[in-house]
Amino acid sequence: MGLDLQGKKVVALGERDGIQGAAIAQCATSAGADVVLEVTHCFV
Predict the structure, then answer these.
(1) Which of 25, 31, 33, 43 could cross-link 12 (Cys pair, CB 3.0–4.6 Å)?
(2) At 4, phi and psi to the nearest 5?
(3) Which residues form a coiled coil (predicted)?
(4) pTM to 2 decimals?
């Protein structure tokens, strides 16, 4: 059982020392989402 994001728009905000935006975007895409923005920042 997985997360169904078919047809949803996703903004993937990643953190440099945590999970990066590219990894979040890849997971969202594999669940059927359309990634509209993918960034990785350092939140200090």
Answers:
(1) 25
(2) -100, 110
(3) none
(4) 0.85
Look-up of token digits 């440099």: 16
Alpha carbons 43 and 7: distance in angstroms, whole number: 30
Q: How far apart are CA 35 and CA 4, in angstroms?
A: 14
Please name which of 5, 42, 44, 1 lies closest in space to residue 25, comparing C-alpha atoms.
5
The predicted pLDDT at position 33 comes to 97
Position of tokens 């923005």? 37
Domain boundaries, the chain: 9-41
CB 16 within 8 A of CB 24: no
